[in-house]
Structures are given as C-alpha cells and as structure tokens.
Design goal:
Blueprint: H1 10-24, E1 35-38, E2 41-45, E3 51-55, E4 59-63, H2 65-73, E5 89-90, E6 97-101, E7 105-110, E8 114-119, H3 120-128, E9 144-145, E10 157-162, E11 165-170, E12 174-176, E13 178-182, H4 184-200, E14 206-217, E15 231-241, E16 247-260, E17 272-279, E18 285-289, H5 298-312, E19 317-319, E20 321-323, E21 336-338, E22 340-345, E23 351-355, H6 369-381
Antiparallel strand pairs: 1-2, 2-3, 3-4, 5-6, 6-7, 7-8, 9-10, 10-11, 11-12, 13-23, 14-15, 15-16, 16-17, 16-18, 17-19, 20-21, 22-23
Helix pairs in contact: 4-5
Length: about 375
C-alpha cells in the first residue's frame, strides 16, 4: 500500500520503508493506517504488536513488547527519547533486549528487571564502561531525581540504579556512586539483634542462640516502574523454656527486603531516612525438636514470629544528607546536600549504600564514602 501527497514525497517514502521493514521482520498486516507524528516523522502499527517509525534522517525501525510499553509511557516519538534508531535487539551478554533512540536514550529489558530507561550523561558514562557487561550491570530504575522545593535554586542530582550500583549526575560531575557497606556478617548481626529483640517482646519464654545463617539471596524482581530489590533469607536457632519438661529447640527461617524509607506523600525527599527490614509474607518457616505448648499449630507460631517482627524488629534512622552550616538544626533547603542516594542489597547478602560522587563541602579525602562508612560501622556496633 502506498501513500502520497502532492508536493510532499515523504509519506510515500515512509510507507515504502515501513512496508519493507514489516516484511523483513514478519510483522504481519498493519493494524493502523500510516500516521504522521509531525512533518518529518511517520509511524504505523502492526497486528503483531510492533510499531514501526520512520524519518528521513533515521530510516525505519520498530519497537514492541515491554520496551514499546515503556516508550509509549514516555510519549513515544513525541517524548524526550525521539524515534528509535535500532530495532529491538539482543544484548551481547545474551540476557537482555534493548532499543536505542535518536535523542541519546535507550530502554533496556530483562526478564528479571523489566524495561528501564537510561539517557543523557548517565547513559554516556554507562556506555563508556561496557553497557550491561560493565561493573554495574543492567539498570533497575528509570532516572530518579532528588525531589526538591525549588529546582531552580536547589541542588540538581539525578541517578539510575543498576544491579550492582548507581550512576549519578549533578551540575558538576557524572560518575559511579561511591559504595559504603554493611557486610554480610554485619547484616547477620543486625538481623539477629532485631529478631532477638522481637522475640523477647513476645509473652513467651523464648530465646535465641547466637548462630545465624544467610541461606539465600534472590535475584532482582521484575517491575515495570522500578525493580524490587533482592531479598535475603536467614536461619536462626532458638529455644522455648518448658520448665520441668526441658527446652524445646527450634530453627526458624524468614526472608527480608531492605530499603530506605520514603514518604510517598511528601513533595521533597527527607533529610533523615530509616533503614527498613520488611518481612516477606509467607517466608517464615520452623522446625521444632520436642513438644511445646507455644507451638500449638503451624499458623500460631508463624503469626507470633511475624507479629514480633512487625512490632519490634525496627532498625533506626540515620542521616542521608548534610548541609553547609553544621550549626543549623533546620538549614534552608538550598543548603542541604544529598549524600546517601539509595541502597542495594548485594548478591552476597550485604547492603551497599550508594554515595554521591561529588566531593564534600568540607574534608580532605574528597569523598563522603569514609564518612558514611564510619557512620555505618558505628550504627552496627551500637545497634
């Protein structure tokens, strides 16, 4: 089918190129007529679920599936990405898919992460280090910007989280986020202390032995907007005092998700956030040696452990920002500087805190990482 307008050959060129692309990719019959996005851009949809875009500058390229869904969310060719300049293609590592777009952006997809958008200086930095085969892997969020009161005055800071880190862009630098760590051993200690606190709040003669094991770490969980972080499973060893009947020993296990708290109703990001440990529903299990009235039935002991975590296994707040005048308890917002960007649960069962790559306002080492690492070490030892 050809389309033509007297004096403007572009619709005919677009239709011919789109027809050729559809035939080469076996897209099947069209589900729409040729559409003019603007004077230089044309698109046609196909029953296979693909859209094919054409411009004289780029030629014809297609998008489909979850990448197309994310692209449409960004207003397609009329949005900040512009038209596709590749068909959906497989990544060199064999796990993912991607499209590149005219205005310097890309959408990358895997079955674990979903479709995530990377653009601008962050994409350039990521590309310079090998894309998904580089040190941080695939993106697990679209670009995130710190929410501020007045963007024209306040600090500009934005980032993409990736599987193993983050890339941050500010007014002065675009670089990989620094990493401060809670090691797997430290996280075991925190979890044991939190679990012990929770159990001792229950109206039962329950105690814990000091041993704790990390039994597994999941992969990232698929989500269209932003992936869910890895979960870590732990196994602990405890006892129930049955008086003259002797102790009933038990092992119980559960999975936790870790995050920094966010108030979704706030228009700005907070200066203080809590490290949260959320019990994964349905993850509690238990083996009991001996007979104990406390373990009357499976549902009861699971409910008690879950109730204990929900009410008593809190992990405290710590600062994620700093500001120029340390004597001000409530500094003006334009003097506040975001330091801890976010966190990532590592595949080894620890937590990496993502630190701004900008140098601090004060200090000689040029990095916030040692400062935050000392804060975290103190946080763990004093928990």
């Amino acid at each position: 089918m050809s389309v033509g307008v007297v004096g403007n050959p572009e619709p005919q060129w677009a239709q011919q190129a789109i027809d050729a692309k559809a035939a080469a990719m076996n897209l099947g019959p069209p589900s729409s007529a040729l559409q003019s996005i603007d004077f230089y851009t044309y698109m046609q949809s196909f029953q296979s679920g693909s859209d094919v875009y054409w411009t004289l500058q780029t030629g014809a390229f297609e998008v489909h599936g979850e990448i197309k869904r994310k692209y449409d969310q960004w207003s397609g060719a009329s949005g900040f990405l512009g038209v596709p300049v590749t068909d959906e293609s497989g990544t060199p590592d064999g796990f993912g898919r991607y499209n590149h777009f005219l205005n310097g952006g890309s959408i990358y997809w895997t079955g674990h992460t979903g479709p995530m958008t990377v653009s601008g200086p962050i994409r350039d930095k990521w590309a310079s280090q090998g894309w998904e085969t580089g040190p941080v892997g695939y993106p697990v969020t679209d670009q995130v910007r710190w929410r501020v009161i007045d963007p024209s005055v306040d600090q500009f800071i934005a980032w993409n989280k990736f599987q193993n880190g983050a890339i941050v862009t500010t007014k002065t630098v675009t670089d990989f986020a620094g990493l401060a760590h809670i090691t797997p051993d430290q996280l075991q200690y925190l979890v044991h202390r939190a679990a012990d606190n929770a159990i001792h709040q229950l109206p039962d003669n329950i105690g814990l032995y000091p041993d704790v094991l990390t039994t597994g770490v999941t992969d990232w969980g698929y989500d269209f907007e932003a992936c869910t972080d890895r979960t870590v499973s732990f196994k602990l060893h405890g006892f129930h005092d049955n008086g003259l009947l002797g102790d009933a020993e038990f092992h119980f296990w559960f999975a936790l998700k870790f995050s920094l708290s966010v108030d979704p109703g706030s228009l700005t990001d907070p200066w203080f956030r809590s490290l949260q440990a959320q019990l994964v529903p349905g993850s509690v299990g238990i083996d009991v040696d001996g007979i104990s009235g406390w373990f009357a039935n499976e549902d009861e002991y699971k409910q008690k452990i879950e109730a204990g975590f929900a009410q008593h296994a809190n992990i405290r707040s710590f600062p994620v920002t700093t500001y120029t005048d340390q004597n001000q308890k409530m500094p003006p917002h334009d003097q506040v500087k975001l330091v801890v960007i976010d966190l990532i649960t590592t595949s080894e069962g620890g937590i990496d805190f993502l630190i701004t790559p900008e140098p601090p306002f004060a200090g000689t080492d040029g990095s916030y990482v040692p400062i935050i690492q000392r804060t975290l070490d103190d946080f763990v030892s004093n928990f």
